[in-house]
Specification:
With 295 residues, the chain is of the alpha+beta class. The protein contains 8 helices and 4 strands; from the N terminus they run αααααααββαββ. A 4-stranded mixed beta sheet has the order 3-2-1-4, covered by helices on one side. The longest helix has 30 residues. The radius of gyration is 25 Å and the shape is elongated. The mean pLDDT is 80. Keywords: Cell membrane, Membrane, Transmembrane, Transmembrane helix, Transport.
Length: 295
């Protein structure tokens, strides 16, 4: 079991602990806003399980039916997480609506907020771990889970701050109002996750800054060739696919052309981790005099 799978399992346990704490906070206070926080924690546990299954399957080696590997399955996990987040938000809005109709005083506010604050602190630490490791290990599922938890942290802090005002002001309507704000923020977060994941499923190109580095690497390591054109890139989970046409002198031997390709592949893999490079070699009569000029 690799580090990514271990982190995904850790998310399940952390999510379960945070849910128990947040539900206890809701039970102590009867707050709709804290109920919304606890409900989102249930979603955290479900999506953590989905993320674990996704990273486990994505680690499977390529086979006859999936010659490019199983890396894209992580995007399905992130899309599922976005859908579940939106479902949770709708449930929270329902409770907030009834809270507006019948606002009520909160009980044991200090104890409930303290317990919720502890859960929020645990979530914030784990969110930082997941985002950092997700980016470091190029795992969309882990990174999405971390960003979701970070959103949970931000909304939890807002809820805690708002609920501190309820006993001071006597504004009992503030509780369902905070729950509504939490729900809307969750919807925005869910949509962001789905949009990013759908982009991965649609084979979006690398960011422009990364593309610039790829072009520079090709230009600086293709000595002996003439030019490179028709550069195409895409992400698939942790893998980055790069392919382009490389124009070489027509009299160049296959061996020499192959040596240039090997040199380019090594340089590109050093620049872009977990990359799969495909190079189509062409004679100089195919030159387009456009694209990447070899330095």
């Amino acid at each position: 079991m690799d580090k990514i799978q271990k982190l995904a399992i850790g998310s399940i346990f952390v999510g379960a602990i945070v849910f128990v704490l947040k539900y206890a906070a809701y039970h102590l206070t009867g707050s709709i806003a804290l109920y919304s926080d606890a409900l989102e924690s249930i979603i955290n546990v479900v999506t953590a399980v989905a993320a674990f299954l996704a990273v486990r399957l994505s680690a499977q080696p390529a086979d006859a039916n999936h010659p490019y590997g199983h890396h894209k399955v992580e995007y399905f996990s992130a899309v599922l997480e976005g859908v579940l987040i939106i479902v949770a938000a709708l449930a929270i809005l329902r409770e907030a609506y009834f809270g507006f109709l019948s606002p009520k005083a909160l009980d044991a506010t200090a104890a409930g907020l303290t317990v919720n604050g502890l859960a929020t602190a645990i979530n914030s630490v784990w969110a930082w771990v997941l985002i950092r490791q997700g980016r470091l290990r190029r795992s969309p599922a882990l990174a999405a889970d971390g960003r979701h938890l970070l959103t949970d942290v931000v909304t939890s802090v807002g809820v805690l701050g708002g609920l501190l005002l309820v006993p001071l002001t006597g504004w009992h309507w503030l509780d369902p109002a905070l729950a509504s704000v939490v729900a809307l923020n969750i919807v925005w977060s869910g949509w962001g996750l789905m949009k990013e994941s759908i982009g991965g499923l649609m084979d979006e190109a690398l960011p422009e800054a990364t593309l610039t580095r790829v072009r520079d690497v090709i230009a600086g390591n293709a000595e002996g060739a003439i030019e490179a054109h028709d550069l195409r890139t895409r992400h698939a989970g942790r893998m980055t696919f790069i392919d382009f046409h490389l124009v070489v002198p027509g009299h160049m031997s296959v061996t020499d052309a192959h040596d240039i390709c090997d040199r380019l592949e090594r340089a590109l893999k050093n620049e872009v981790e977990d990359s799969l490079i495909t190079i189509h070699v062409e004679p100089d009569v195919k030159a387009k005099h456009a694209g990447i000029v070899v330095l």
